[in-house]
Amino acid sequence: MADLNDQIAPETELEEEDAYVLDRRGVAAVLYAVEIGDRDRLLALMEPMHSADIADLLEQINPFDRGRLIRLYDQEFDGEILSDLDENIREEVMAALRPETLAEAVRDMESDDVVDLVEDLDAPQQEAILEVLEDADRVAVEQALSYPEFSAGRLMQRETVMAPEHWTVGDAIDYMRDAEELPEQFYHVILVDPRMRPVANVTLGKIMGAPRTVPLKNIAEEMFQIIPVTQDEGDVAYAFNQYHLITAPVVDENERLVGVITIDDAMEVLDEEHEEDILRLAGVGEESSLSDRVVETTRQRLPWLAVNLVTAILASLVIAQFEATIAQYVALAVLMPIVASMGGNAGTQSLTVAVRALATKDLTSANVWRVIRREVLVGLINGVVFALVMGVVGIIWFGSPMLGVVIAVAMVVNLVVAGLAGTGIPVLLEKIGVDPALASGAFVTTVTDVVGFFAFLALAGAILL
Amino acid sequence: MADLNDQIAPETELEEEDAYVLDRRGVAAVLYAVEIGDRDRLLALMEPMHSADIADLLEQINPFDRGRLIRLYDQEFDGEILSDLDENIREEVMAALRPETLAEAVRDMESDDVVDLVEDLDAPQQEAILEVLEDADRVAVEQALSYPEFSAGRLMQRETVMAPEHWTVGDAIDYMRDAEELPEQFYHVILVDPRMRPVANVTLGKIMGAPRTVPLKNIAEEMFQIIPVTQDEGDVAYAFNQYHLITAPVVDENERLVGVITIDDAMEVLDEEHEEDILRLAGVGEESSLSDRVVETTRQRLPWLAVNLVTAILASLVIAQFEATIAQYVALAVLMPIVASMGGNAGTQSLTVAVRALATKDLTSANVWRVIRREVLVGLINGVVFALVMGVVGIIWFGSPMLGVVIAVAMVVNLVVAGLAGTGIPVLLEKIGVDPALASGAFVTTVTDVVGFFAFLALAGAILL
User: What stretch or stretches form a coiled coil here (chains A, B) (predicted)?
Assistant: First the structure.
């Protein structure tokens, strides 16, 4: 309904898989309006768009057009667009807005969105934003900022709807109808004991369906998950996904209710955590984004390439030990990358499975040895299969049965090592408190490169010469 | 609160990062109860556990213990455990349950969970499950199964709470209070026109807070997203995340309301889609799971290793063209893997960013050329940096300035190509309808291997000899 494609270019027949993608024509129409400086046309085009789609549009156009669009659109710019924007162009956009527009946008935002907006800003900029807020909102934001970054305290909204545990459905309804202001979003009434500790959750649907005299306790949710305010946001997202939560109360160190987290915020965190894992596994800075500039992107990727260079040089040092062997038998130089490459790939397979299983808490002390044994066995079987294939290739290509044997044995050795390292290294890193997604790749590749080249060349030296 | 660790081993001081992980002692206590066949002890240990944690426990123990535990626990086994179980041990568990227990468990489940349970079963097994359902539920499940796999139709629940668009808050409240049965989970009332087309969404919270005379239309949600019943579940998850939806109505081809999807189901899909992407990028079958057996795991990974073998052999064929060069200058064999490895890594960085950006619909025709230009420039800058480093290494290690020049130039060439291929290949694959997460890796590595070896060895042949 609010799909940008339908709105901007209703004549385009969308294919199913293009759903929700900003289309070229829609973007072109907006840019044309910006080009000719036609404010009315721009507003007409943007009016039906969801703030999240406007944010995407701003991210996808170039900085020059972005600046012009913002200046032309200015007064219409609202807080939701700002919170939907990618963090690394947010500052640029905030700088381009007129101060009054920015103040207005910030005043419109929910307090948890303001937290998200200001937490990465420098102190003076943060100060400037907080100043425009009403007192109550400013206090709420400052309170949230006092909790650690990436904690439940930063994620929660402070406005909750709670009721004493002895209330009936009728009490709750009367209270809500009389309340001056209810939170923008709420789906449960939280029952609390006299010391403000949450004891149960009642969905609004259940309240709607029950007679007025029924005690709230009797229609409370069966399972009830409480989140400590200092809990890591990744664990919060995990709990929502694992226990199918819609909202969960947040408590302080005295187990008193201080706020509530709703599933849409947890879903966003889950999405970000996944994104980080994927980017870390690939050796890309987890903060990276498509709208980063060249310099920033280069700076993020260079360290990982440097680590890889060290790894590659280590492998080269191993090869250098066998220069004499290679000089006598150049076919070794031709075949040696195959063994290393297969090991690297098998290792990446094992490590990805292990890193994911650690992230989803499926790989624990209860099954770690079984998983390691499985990975080693898989490496062994795959090793034997590809050993046979490469043995035959070696014989046909270079006419040497012994060369076939050498590459076959090296292949088996390296794939077994790949299975072992691919599982063992992430598990060890997790144990010593290093993010396995971040560091496993470099270690595993080093192992499979070194073992691959060494096994192949040392065997060749012993058998062929 | 319902955390397994707290429940089973309350004496264990949990570190923050171990939140929600099944702990070794808890698992051991359960297995001990199974070992001595003490049913009461087992029930006492399992009673406080959430069904999702019981499912995790079953996944993490070995098949023999799993069978014994299920037989001892049998009657207590409920439908929620079954839906929380990993698909590939679900059949094993269902086979181990007594038929009456299984029937009871299935009858307890929500209809969308039954759909999830039976959709992968063979026809006779599916039939057996459906038979135990009540008529209304069976029809609901059969109807859902008539929609394509992975579509919104499979994901939605059919029970909705709707109201004519002209109703007031009071009308809605009276209707809900008088309703015989309301859905287990609902957070919105959907307003429909006389032809059953959804026109707006009203949250229960707003209804609770508004006077009885207010028309529902006046307190409806501003943005309102409608999901076609055939839409791919991945796009559904995207829409929930993009537009911050809690529930969304699902419509058939005549735009009539047929069901509703809630965010917890969308979050699960988002989680699965991410998982698939990560596993595909690593060349691991996306269906893979930690509880797969050795044979299954081997079968899933072998094809990707076979693809890699072809890639590696291609690279070797390139090297083979330069056997004479290498024979004259063995240092080339020592250094050549470095160029290929750096290219492979840089290519993986670019392709991961591109694959993710395609998945999140952030890489579109509006910015594809800008992104490609950026990746090439980043490759160029990183290439120059590492060319300088490797040039110096070449000179120091092998005492040959010309060797330094060769490796430096090859490095720049390969990193530029890596940036180009790493972005261009995923974009092309997406265009021709192939999942870029699945196939990009093999193509990009082939390109960087071939270009890396060729550039280095050909240059060396031309300059050094």
Answer: none
> Where are the CATH 3.10.580.10 domain residues in chain B?
162-281
In terms of phi and psi (left: phi > 0; alpha: psi -120 to 50; beta: otherwise), the region of A231 is: beta
Please tell me whether residue B37 adopts helix, strand or coil conformation.
coil
Determine how many CB atoms are found less than 10 A away from the CB of residue A177.
15
B405-419 average pLDDT score: 95
CA–CA separation, B391 and A309 (whole Å) = 13
Which part of chain B is CATH 1.25.60.10?
Answer: 4-155
- Residue A45, pLDDT score: 93
The percentage of chain A sitting over the pLDDT mark of 70, rounded to a whole number, equals 95
CATH of domain B4-155: 1.25.60.10
CB-based contact A290 B348, cutoff 8 Å:
no
Reported as a pLDDT band with limits 50, 70 and 90, residue B465 is: confident
Three-state DSSP at B188 gives strand
Q: Which of residues 296-315 of B touch A (CB under 8 A)?
A: 297-298, 301-302, 304-306, 308-309, 311-313, 315
Give residue-wise pLDDT tens across range B128-155: 888 889 888 899 899 999 999 999 999 9
Looking at this predicted complex, what is its ipTM?
0.88
What is d(CA B455, CA B348) in angstroms, rounded to the nearest whole number?
Answer: 19
Tell me which chain A residue has its CA closest to the CA of residue B56: A362
Q: Residue B109 — pLDDT band, cuts 50, 70, 90?
A: confident
Residues 268-297 of B with CB under 8 A from A: 268, 270-271, 274-275, 277-279, 281-284, 288, 290, 292-294, 297
Domain A294-464 has CATH 3.40.50.300: no
Measured CA to CA, the distance from residue A420 to residue A374 in angstroms comes to 9
Annotation: CATH topology of B162-281: CBS-domain (3.10.580)
Q: Which residues of B222-238 are buried (b: 16+ CB within 10 A; e: fewer)?
A: eebbbbbbebbbbbbbb
B430 lies within 8 A of chain A by CB = no
From chain A, pick out residues whose CB is under 8 angstroms from the CB of B403.
Answer: none
- C-beta separation of A444 from A434 below 8 A: no
Is a pLDDT exceeding 60 seen at residue B15? no
CB spacing of A319 vs B309 below 8 angstroms: no
Helix-helix angle B263-281:B331-359, to 10 degrees: 160
Structural tokens at position B15: 């570190």
* Cβ-proximal residues to A126 (8 Å cutoff; 6+ apart), any chain: A118
